[in-house]
# Entry
Amino acid sequence: MDNPPDLIAHPDLAPRAERIRVSHLCVSYHGAVALHEVSLRVNAGSICGLVGTNGAGKSTLFKALMGFVRPSQGDISINGLPLRQALRRQAVAYVPQMESVDWNFPIHVANVVMMGRYGGMNLLRIPSRDDHRAVRESLERVELWPLRHRQIGELSGGQRKRAFLARALAQGSSVLLLDEPFAGVDIRTERLMIELFQQFRAEGRSLLISTHDLSHITGFCDEVVLINKTVLAYGDTSEVFTEENLARTFGGSPAQLLTSPGLEPRLEPGRQPWRSEP
Ligand SMILES: Nc1ncnc2c1ncn2[C@@H]1O[C@H](COP(=O)(O)OP(=O)(O)OP(=O)(O)O)[C@@H](O)[C@H]1O
Ligand SMILES: [Mg+2]
# Structure
C-alpha cells in the first residue's frame, strides 16, 4: 500500500493496562487482501468502536482476534499474552455478526450460554453448580431466562443477539468482541445492551464493537478505530471522530458524506460528529 496508516496514538496508552494489541496484521482470502498492516491497541476499561464500510475488514479483524483466520503477517496479544495462550485462558468472548451463525444447529439457548463455560471444564464437560449459576445470572441479565429451553433458531433476531451476549457474559472474559451487536435490534434491547456494555467497562473489561450507527460512537465509545483494509485513524473519539476522518473512511468530501442525495443528512455540515444534536 502506498500510504502508510496514519495512526493517531491514544495519549494515555503508556500508563494504562493494554487489553488488545494488534501489530502489522495482514490477512488475505485466496490472495485478495482483506487487512493490510493493521495496528491498534485497546486499553483496559475502554469501549472502542470499529467503523468502516461494508467489506472494510471489520469481521475479518474479529475473526483474526479469535484465531479463526490465519494472518499472513503480524502479531496479536491479549492482556500481554500471545493470542493462542489468551484464547486458551478464555480471555476473549465473541458475539459474531449474526449472518455468520448456523441457526439450524440443534441447541437450546441455555446450552449456547453454557458453551461460554466450557473453557473452565474438564474433557467430560459436566457443568458444576457455579457453571449453572453463571448461566442463569447471564440469561437473567439479558432478560432471556424464560426462553432458556427454546432452540436457538426459534428466537427472534434481537433475542439471538442477547443469547450470544449472555454466552459472552457467562465466559467472564476481560475482552469482548461484538460484531454489529445492534443490527436489527429494537430500541429497548439496544438500551439494555448499551447499559451492559457500560457495566463491563466499569468492571475493567474492554470492548471492541463494530457498528454502522455513528451515533453509537459519539454516544458511548471512548475510542474509535476507523478502518478500510488498514487503520485510517484510531484513538480518543473526541480527537479521531472528525468529519475529515469520516470522509476518508467512507469516501467523498465531508459535505457529500453528510448530505448524500436521497438520504436524510445524519449530521449537519460543519457540525462535529461527536457533539449531540440540540
Ligand atoms: N471467507 C471469505 N472468503 C473470501 N473472501 C472473504 C471471506 N470473508 C470475507 N471476505 C472478503 O474480505 C473482505 C472483508 O470482509 P469482512 O467481512 O471482514 O468485511 P466487514 O467490514 O465485516 O463488512 P460488513 O460491514 O459488510 O460486515 C470483503 O471484501 C469480503 O468479500
Ligand atoms: Mg462484517
Observations:
- Residues 1-91+173-251 form a domain with the Rossmann fold fold (CATH 3.40.50.300).
